[in-house]
Design a protein that fits this description.
Layout: H1 2-16, E1 35-38, H2 51-56, H3 59-73, E2 78-81, E3 91-105, E4 109-122, E5 125-136, H4 147-167, E6 173-176
Parallel strand pairs: 1-2, 1-3, 5-6
Antiparallel strand pairs: 3-4, 4-5
């Protein structure tokens, strides 16, 4: 009987510990005034990122989706486009992934981090820029997570960081963890 009670309490605790997902959108996005971000955030030219991360983890698409989802939850209209440009019409968020490192594993402990940089442009004029980085050891039950899952956690939080920055885009800001 004691084991059943402990198991039930543990199950309730685990269910309550889920990661925070993006808030439900609180606005309707007007495509003409929305901030545009690329569908697939590129890796920075010359960035040293392992080939298996590039091939297997889909960080570029995940980061774009998280920026969009979290921004909508914060009341900032962001839409994904196939192309964005510093010189483009309207507001363009130009972001690149500058580093993604996957060290460790489920057995000895995950040590992952991702860093990005970006700038917001309005009709070709820079409105602000940022650098950002996030570290992760995998969180709860890290031993049951793969490397791409843990790297995915870093871009998820980076997406949230960028969405908060978009509410007040300060030039030269650093978001997230210090590396």
């Amino acid at each position: 009987m004691k084991h059943i009670v402990i198991s039930t309490i543990l199950a309730i605790f685990v269910m309550g510990c889920g990661g925070s997902d993006p808030k439900k959108p609180t606005i309707t996005v007007n495509p003409k005034t929305a901030i545009k971000v690329k569908h697939s955030i590129p890796f920075n030219k010359g960035a040293r990122i392992a080939g298996n991360i590039k091939r297997e983890c889909d960080l570029q698409d995940k980061l774009s989706k998280y920026i969009t989802a979290y921004s909508l939850g914060e009341g900032v209209g962001v839409i994904r486009k196939s192309r964005t440009s510093k010189r483009g019409k309207g507001k363009n968020l130009v972001v690149t992934i500058t580093e993604a490192v996957s060290s460790g594993n489920a057995f000895i402990g995950h040590r992952k981090f991702t860093s990005i940089k970006g700038a917001l442009y309005n009709n070709g004029k820079r409105q602000g820029s940022f650098t950002a980085a996030r570290l992760s050891g995998g969180g709860a039950f890290a031993g049951f997570k793969g490397s791409c899952d843990v790297l995915g956690r870093t871009v998820k939080i980076l997406g949230r960081d960028v969405s908060l920055w978009l509410k007040n885009p300060v030039d030269g800001a650093h978001l997230g963890d210090r590396l």
